[in-house]
Amino acid sequence: MGWQEHYRRRDALDAVIASGGELSVPEPFTDLDELLLALHHRWSMRLAGRLELAVTAAERDPDLDRARAVGEAWRASAADNAALRRILERHADRPVLRERVDAERRALADVAGLTAPGDAAEDRAAVGAAFLALVETRPRRNPVERLLRRLAPSA
Q1: pTM score
Q2: 58-100 pLDDT tens trace
Q3: Cβ-based neighbour number of residue 79 at 10 Å
Q4: What integer pLDDT is reported at residue 120 of this predicted model?
Q5: DSSP string covering 78-97, please?
Q6: CA 96 vs CA 46, 117, 136: distances in Å
Q7: Domain chopping of the chain, boundaries
């Protein structure tokens, strides 16, 4: 892809996001799946930058809770990209996005320190989904404790 194509795709994504999610497929995209993949890629890149900063801050400051830092990074990314998040959430059940949503959940669980890459993928995705549910509801004090309570109601 040359620079002209890059800018055409960027401008088309900007227009879709600015439209509030009217998903008619603009040029240069060929179908809805290709458009959704490009939108998800944009979200992933923005989230990854914030997560990297959060993890670095947590590694430097032993008093900073890693899970809390990751949750705050996700919330800040979602707030800064609210229209993009709405579009992706509206289409999260489409087959083209399901695998990417699960991959994001696994990554969140790993980065927050709640799972390890060697754990079963299904378990990591489930922990990531529970963590994300807590993050989206704005945890009161300790997101890890709330996550554990949600995963094990007897805890």
Answers
A1: 0.82
A2: 999 989 999 999 999 999 999 999 999 999 999 999 999 999 9
A3: 9
A4: 96
A5: HHHTHHHHHHHHHTTTSHHH
A6: 20, 23, 23
A7: 39-151
Q: Give 18-62 pLDDT, tens digit per residue.
A: 987 667 888 899 999 999 999 999 999 999 999 999 999 999 998
Rounded to whole angstroms, how far apart are CA atoms 103 and 106? 5
Residue 62 corresponds to which tokens in the numbers above?
A: 């032993």
CA 1 – CA 75 distance, rounded (Å): 32
Residues 6+ apart with CB under 8 A from 131: 67, 71, 105, 108, 109, 112, 114, 143, 147
Alpha helices in the chain (DSSP H): 3-18, 32-60, 66-80, 82-90, 95-111, 121-136, 143-151
- The pLDDT score that the predictor gives to residue 145 is 66
Give the tokens for residue 22: 């009217």
Contact 17, 87 (CB under 8 A): yes
